[in-house]
Amino acid sequence: MTVTSSTLERLLAAANASDIDRLHQLIALCALVGPLSQLVHALQRERGAASIVLGSRGQRFIDRYQAHADHSRQADTQLHAALTHWMSARDETSHEARAYSPRLLRRLAGAVTALDALAELRTRVAAQQVSADEATRLYNRAIGTLLSVVFEVADTASDADITRALVSLFHFIQGKELAGQERACGALGFTLGHFDDTHRHTLQSLIDAQQDCFDTFTEFADETARNRWAALADHPTLTTLGHLRALALADTDLPSDLEAPGEQWYALATQRIDALKAIEDQLVEALHQSCCRALEQASSRDRTDDVTAFIEPVSRSSPPEIDAPTAPVTARYFDRSLLELVQTQNQRLQQLSDELAHTRKTLRERKLIERAKGLLMAQQHIDEDSAYRLMRRTAMDQSQPLVTIARAMIDRAER
User: Fold this and answer.
1) What DSSP assignment string belongs to 339-359?
2) What is residue 323's three-state secondary structure?
3) Sequence-ordered strand ranges (E) for 271-341
4) Helix, strand and coil percent figures for the chain, each rounded to 5
5) Residues of 277-315 as b/e, b for ≥16 C-beta within 10 angstroms?
6) Which of 239, 307, 334, 404 has the most other CB atoms within 10 Å of its CB?
């Protein structure tokens, strides 16, 4: 055997061994995805129940909330057990085989920290010491840290089929999380008996973002997953849920004859999300099976055939075309494009979350300014423009934001 072929054989053997190590890592990480998704599902239910508890000032759903919090704690315990097992198995392997991404490990550490902070939030919810919007934001943050771990798992894939499975799973999980946020937002509005502009805008944005996620999921999912998703469209709860969505999004008062609409919305949205969870579980299992098949193929790969395939173009009389990459290189480009899609979608969803938070803040400030302006018009017997100019001049003289002046005026009027 020539030196060139011997070198190629060693390189390809090393590449194959690296693939096997990465697949072992991915299978181990997939074992964490299940407990992660179970905990996310439990926290999503807990978050929605908290909206009803806080929206009703502790008069409704408190027992249900406590039960969901207990389920979340159980799921948290199971995740910690899975992490402990994963870390122990990792410590027992060689240094090369356990070279996980530092970012993944930091994501896991961040998730543990965020979960520890939930105990205080639950105490504040039970004591009515936090607003529904703030509680939702804090739950979103904790859930977001868990979902970020799933994204980091996607970055360990090198096989095109596995990457496709990860991309479809990632977007499905994101879509389900947005459905959970919709449940919480709707539960609050229906419990309060009205939706203001802020929450209507939030609800519509969450619905639109879900559609984007599920569209990407169906683009990359296999036929079995697409069929399951199509069957969900016929779920009997969707018709009633769609009717309640329309009521929430309409710029009118909710009908007065609705009976416990917050609980009804929560129950219908929960049935839909539970159906999504069943599909998610199937996607996780399909991902695990894909990893096992890829590992079996890599372990039984005939390296001699690989060497022959790579030597053949080198032995030709004319050099290969530079702009005609071989199949393995094309597959790698394909993998990276999928991973970039995941990252782009993750960034877009984070941007959406930031935009929603900014919009809510802006609308609330605008309402405060409008209310203060009305008070000033009534007190000073001046028109709207004059009241606004007076508030603006006061803000400039005191070097304070206009909303701070408005809030101070309202506070004085309410004393």
Assistant:
1) HHHHHHHHHHHHHHHHHHHHH
2) coil
3) none
4) 85, 0, 15
5) bebbeebbebbbebbeebbeebeeeeeeebbeebeeeee
6) 307
Q: How far apart are CA 291 and CA 157, in angstroms?
A: 9
Task: Show the tokens assigned to 315.
Answer: 């032995």
Which stretches does DSSP call E strand in 205-359? none
The C-alpha atoms of residue 374 and residue 148 are separated, in whole angstroms, by 45
Across the chain, what does the average pLDDT equal?
A: 79
CB neighbourhood size of 219 (10 A)? 13
pLDDT for the residue numbered 72:
95
Q: How far apart are CA 50 and CA 62, in angstroms?
A: 8
Closest CA to 286 of 171, 147, 166: 166
Statement: residue 324 has pLDDT above 70: no
| Amino acid present at 189 | G
- Comparing 59-68, 311-320, 398-407, which segment has the lowest mean pLDDT? 311-320
Tokens of 201: 């805008």
Burial readout 333-348 (b: 16 or more C-beta within 10 A, e: otherwise): eebeebbebbeebbee
Among 229, 203, 204, which residue's Cα sits nearest to residue 215? 229
Domains, the chain, ranges and CATH?
A: 2-84+103-301+332-363 (no CATH), 364-414 (1.10.10.10)
Tokens representing 48 are 């929605």
Query: Which tokens is 313 given?
Result: 């173009």
- Rounded to whole angstroms, the Cα distance separating 101 from 90 reads 13
The pLDDT tens digits of the residues spanning 165-218 come to 877 888 899 899 999 999 999 999 999 998 988 889 989 999 998 988 898 888
147 CA to centre of own chain? 5
Task: Pinpoint the alpha helices (H) of 221-260.
Answer: 223-232, 237-249
C-alpha atoms less than 13 angstroms from C-alpha of 347 in its C-beta half-sphere: 6
pLDDT category of residue 289 using cuts at 50, 70 and 90: confident
Counting every residue written for the chain, the total comes to 415
Angstrom distance (rounded) from CA 3 to CA 9: 10
